[in-house]
Amino acid sequence: MTLDLTTEAIAKLSPAELIGTLERISPDDPALKGVDIDVIARGVDPKKLGKDDFAALLRALGALADGGADLDLSKMDPSNFARIISRASKDQIEAVVSDPALRTRVLDEVFRRMEAHFRSDRAGATKAVVHFHVLEDVYEAIIENAECTINKGVTREARAVVTLTPADFLKLATGNASAPVLFMTGKLKVKGDLGFAAGFMSLFNIPKA
Q: What highest taxon heads this organism's lineage (predicted)?
């Protein structure tokens, strides 16, 4: 039987049915041709999913993208990406980050988007390096020449080193938490230039859900 994954058909599927379909379908199935990842994102509300279902959704999308389907997270609209992260519970985020491959996929995508959302007009002559420690993953943001470059791993000495959990980082990067509040509640730790670290996210256009 040919699967129907038109926008109208996806809208009629329950979240569980949609996830099950994505887990079963082959990346080269003709039904996936023209499927918009944003339609899938809008059809899923993490609050209506179980603890492990959110991770299952991202894992299924990743497997299809790896197989050649046009469903990579990089294609998802920033507002939709921010929405699904903001509506995911702490337990759902923990289920994502407990899978090393899935955690890397999501964190890599978030940091990639930081380069794209950098506000060069706000940077001026700023020249600085910030290291982010998220569990055992370390990312480096280099600000210079009114540009932002993201590296995985450390290549330069940091002006500030920021440490926080994956769940809190994802909330921060999608506009669902503020650095000062996270710092005041002990969820964000900074070594080095605290003032610069506190205002670092103002150098970016943070997507809103």
A: Bacteria
pLDDT value at position 5?
A: 86
Strand order in the sheet with 147-152: 147-152, 137-144, 128-134, 160-164, 188-192
Beta-carbon contacts of 153 under 8 Å, excluding residues fewer than 6 positions away, are 138, 139, 140
Residue 151: φ, ψ to 5°: -120, 150
Which of 92, 114, 136 is a domain's end point? 114
For residues 93 and 44, give the distance between their C-alpha atoms in angstroms, rounded to a whole number: 15
| Residues 39, 33: Cα–Cα separation, whole Å | 13
Place of tokens 């007009």: 121
Residue with structure tokens 């669902």? 176
Residue-number span of the structural domain to which 181 is assigned = 120-203
The answer to the question of residue 168 being in a domain is yes
Rounded Cα gap, residues 135 and 119, in angstroms: 27
Q: State whether residue 160 is helix, strand or coil.
A: strand
For the residues 5-16, what does the mean pLDDT come to? 87
